[in-house]
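Supplementary Note 3. Input sequence used for the single-chain structure prediction.
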Amino acid sequence: MAADKPQSLKAAIWTAHARITDKARMRKLLAPLPAKIAAEARKLAGPAFRGKAGTRYDAASKKAFFLQHEDDDVLFVWVFEAIESVEVAAGLGAAIEQAAPIDDIEHLHAIYTEVTGQLVETTGRHH
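The predicted structure, written as discrete structure tokens, is reproduced below.
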């Protein structure tokens, strides 16, 4: 990949959320996640972690997962595709936390491109 021309991906970021008290939505939110990531998300959904966030990496799928327990008890999951290493995932998580709050998707795209060198053409949303 040339440093001056980032590779373009159709859908490199997926986002979904659920109210923690809605058990059916939480199951739907966690079902597609790798088992280890889903377990981490369940832990983060606990009352002691309200307002906390963190990044996890799944090497098998080459995806990073940014998990955030909002103060209003909504769990957000952002899935970032085409993440080559745990180091890149950590850099992405640190950049997101440093830039917080992220108020629009273009800002998230810019962070992803800065950290990974890849452009995002679209963002998927799971409901």
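DSSP finds four helices and five strands in the chain. The mean pLDDT is 87.
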